[in-house]
Design brief:
By secondary structure, the protein is an all-alpha fold. About 80% of the residues lie in helices and about 0% in strands. α1 runs antiparallel to α8 and α14 packs parallel to α19. The two termini are about 35 Å apart.
């Protein structure tokens, strides 16, 4: 960290900041809290699960559709920071409201959660795009990887605090109900997210931009239309996005389905939480390692290495039987999960025209969001047809093979960047 500029450190710390939301609100605590609140209100389990699915789908769809348009507007001078701040404030305020709204008001809780999803997703569009403003192309792999590593490390602290509060409340060691302990965990999440975003708000500014025009909103739509018309000029970018769509779908599916997969193997919830925690800890140094190796062997090479590791993971999953097997699988995932995500971000940042970074990261966000559809369906369909969860996970190998083949056709980032500069 000492060798990084103030802007680089401030940008990296946002990964540390928003990681609390990812693990406590998206993954670990709030889904269970909402299910319990809905059950207490008399909703059937299937009904509350349906509402949970609808809420996630609608919020994700809304921010995904808006992403390229918002990005196109944010490319004008002074807009990127404003948009980042707006979505950040939206996310933090409504995350804090999760701690304030009574648990009996399950519908209001769900609406607040949807707004947090929009705030979190919207902020990340502009955060990712700020990578071109805070560092040089030569350092993008390193800085992006440090961001993911800081996120993994940072996520463990509020995670331990939140889970400890809930467990101590469950065992009556603390004079709190589980509901209140969960609400305190949500407040910790909002405070963590808000506090560690201050350096980003203070020190990071838009360096690459287009000069403002009289009607930035209508011009944003117009620029988006022009980009679509010139799509052939950005062939390396969209070829990469196509590869990214397939392999990141596989990565995300393994992350989101891991708990259900472990449960099917008979692993209890306590062990699953321990494995989840260990995965976060191990993933941090490996994310940094991927960044260093990418500087030596090129980012595209290391992305292909990451894809190959995931092919091994899918194959190993087919033969999975014991808790030890699941631990080995989790550590394999930890070895490449952060690296493949970090290098995807930095590789794409090198490909985009810097003055249009927000618009293109809007497309990046769409491909990331919609890459959460095919993988879970493939796992579910294969598992149902074969009656075997292992076969469902093994089927994801198709996504990694397709993604790898397409990625091999993408020009090296420096060649693609030269091509982009010529077309501009």
């Amino acid at each position: 960290m000492s060798r990084m500029t103030k802007q680089e450190k401030s940008w990296v710390f946002y990964d540390w900041a928003n990681s609390a939301y990812s693990i406590l609100i998206t993954t670990a605590v709030f889904p269970l809290y909402f299910k319990a609140a809905a059950k207490e209100a008399g909703l059937a389990g299937a009904t509350s699960t349906a509402y949970w699915g609808y809420a996630n789908s609608f919020a994700t769809l809304l921010i995904s559709i808006c992403a390229p348009v918002l990005g196109s507007i944010a490319d004008f001078r002074g807009f990127k920071k404003r948009f980042f701040t707006f979505f950040f404030a939206l996310g933090v305020i409504f995350t804090f409201l999760l701690a304030v709204v009574p648990s009996s008001q399950w519908m209001i809780l769900l609406i607040c959660y949807m707004v947090t999803v929009i705030g979190f997703g919207g902020t990340n569009i502009f955060y990712d795009a700020f990578l071109v403003d805070v560092t040089t192309e030569e350092r993008m792999n390193k800085i992006s990887s440090r961001g993911f590593a800081m996120g993994y490390i940072g996520s463990t602290i509020p995670f331990i605090m939140g889970i400890a509060l809930i467990i101590l409340a469950q065992q009556s060691i603390l004079p709190l109900s589980v509901t209140v302990a969960s609400q305190v965990a949500f407040a910790i999440t909002a405070l963590w997210w808000g506090l560690f975003t201050i350096p980003m708000l203070k020190n990071v500014n838009q360096v690459y931009y287009k000069e403002r025009v009289p009607n930035p909103v209508s011009n944003g739509f117009k620029q988006l239309f022009i980009t679509f018309k010139k799509i052939k000029l950005y062939r390396p970018l969209f070829l990469f996005l196509l590869a990214y769509f397939f392999y990141i779908d596989g990565v995300n599916t393994i992350i989101t389905m891991s708990t259900a997969y472990g449960s099917d193997l008979g692993i209890d919830s306590t062990n699953l939480l321990i494995i989840l925690f260990a995965t976060q800890v191990v993933a941090a140094p490996f994310a940094i390692l991927y960044g260093k190796l990418a500087d030596r062997f090129k980012g595209k090479t290391m992305l292909l290495v990451g894809i190959f590791v995931y092919i091994i993971i899918c194959t190993y999953a087919y033969f999975l039987k014991t808790v030890l097997d699941f631990w080995i699988l989790a550590m394999l995932v930890a070895s490449s999960q952060g690296g493949i995500q970090a290098l995807s971000r930095s590789y794409f940042a090198k490909l985009v025209p810097k003055e249009s970074a927000n618009e293109f990261f809007g497309f990046y966000s769409i491909f990331y969001k919609f890459a959460a559809i095919l993988g879970p369906f493939l796992v579910g369909f294969t598992a149902q047809m074969t009656g075997n969860t292992n076969s469902g996970v093994f089927s994801l190998i198709v996504l990694f093979i397709i993604g790898g083949i397409i990625l091999m056709r993408v020009p090296e980032s420096n060649q693609a960047t030269q091509s982009n500069s010529i077309t501009h």
